[in-house]
Amino acid sequence: MNTDYILIVLGEPYSVFSEIIGKYFRNKKKFKKKIIIIGNQNLLTKQLKKLNCNFPINSISNYKDAEKKKINLINIEFKHKKIFDKISNKSNLYIRNCFKKSLEIIGNKKDKFVLINGPVSKKTFLKKQYSGITEYLSQKTHSTNEVMLIYNNKFSVSPITTHIPIKKVARNISKDKIQNKVIRLNNFYKKVFKKKISIAVLGLNPHCETIDKFSEEEKIIYPAIKYLKNAGIRIFGPFSADTFFIKKNINKYDLVIGMYHDQVLTPMKTIFNFDAINITVGLPFVRISPDHGPNSDMLGKNISDPSSFIYAMKFAENIR
C-alpha cells in the first residue's frame, strides 16, 4: 500500500462531526498526506464559525488539485435554512452524493486513498435497507464478506454478525462465515501492520454451554477454530464471554472475535471509551469511521470529545 490521500466524508450535516473535525484541524498544521473533505462548504463554514472551531479551507473541484499543506474541500450541494437542525430525511440525497463523490474519486486507484466518514443516522438515511454503513459501502463497492473491526493498537474486537436483531444471531453464524472473516482479518493485520496476531474466539451461549440438543460451540465455533489452527493461524477458544474481558486476556490477545455486535463492542467501549476506531476490512480500500454517532443531543454545544477522530486521523496518516 502507498496511500497519498485521506478523504473525509462529512456524513450527516446535523451531527457533532463538524465540531469534532474543527477541534482537530484548527490546531493541526502539518499533514503526512493530502486531506480532502467531501461535503457542503457553506454549512460547514457556518457551523465552525458558530462553534469557534474555524480553520482555513482550500476549495477545489478535482482531487488532483489538493495541496498537502492545506485542508482541501470538494463541495457537495446542500440547501439548508438553519446552521443546526434536527436530523431528517431531507439530508439523504446530500449524504448519498457525498459518498458517491468519494467512491468516484477512489475509482480504480484504491491503494491511494483512505476513506474516513462521519456518522449518519441509520433510522433516517439507511431506512432499514442496510443494517449499517459497513454494509452500505460493501454494496456500493460490490464487495462481499465485509468485516467490522473495532481497532485499538493494544486490543481490538470484531463481531461475526453486525447490526442484526439478537433473535437472528444464532441462525446467522456458520463455520464458513467465521473462517472467512478470521482469514480476512488475519491477512489485514499481516498486510497493514506486518504482524502475526493472537486471536481469541468467544462462544455464543453463556459459559459456552447449552441444554439444547444443538450446541453452536460444538457444531460451529470449535470446528471453525480447529480449521483455522490447521491453516497456521494463531487462534484459541471458544471462551466464555462473561469472564473474558479481564486485564490478563487483554494483554494476551490482539483480537477477539465475538458472535454478535454488543457481545464485543460493549466491553470494548467500556475499556477504551472513544480511543478506538471502526475499520471496515474487505472493501477495495481502507475505510475508517470514528467510533461515535451523530449525537444530536450535543449538537452545537461545543462539548464533544474528538478523541476517536484524532485516533482515526493518526491511523490513516500512518498507513503506508
Which descriptors apply to this entry?
320 residues; alpha/beta; Isopropylmalate Dehydrogenase; eight-stranded mixed sheet; 11 helices; 36% helix; globular
Care to describe what's here?
There is one protein chain. With 320 residues, the protein is an alpha/beta fold. The protein folds into two domains: 1-143 and 283-320, 3-Layer(aba) Sandwich (Isopropylmalate Dehydrogenase), CATH 3.40.718.10; 153-273, Isopropylmalate Dehydrogenase (3-Layer(aba) Sandwich). It contains eleven helices and twelve strands. Strands 3-4-2-1-5-12-11-6 form an eight-stranded mixed β-sheet, with helices on both faces. A four-stranded parallel β-sheet has the order 7-10-8-9, sandwiched between helices. Helix 1 (17-25) links the parallel strand 1 and strand 2 (34-39). Helix 6 packs parallel to helix 7. The longest helix is centred in the middle third of the chain and has 19 residues, at 175-193. The protein is globular and about 60 Å long.
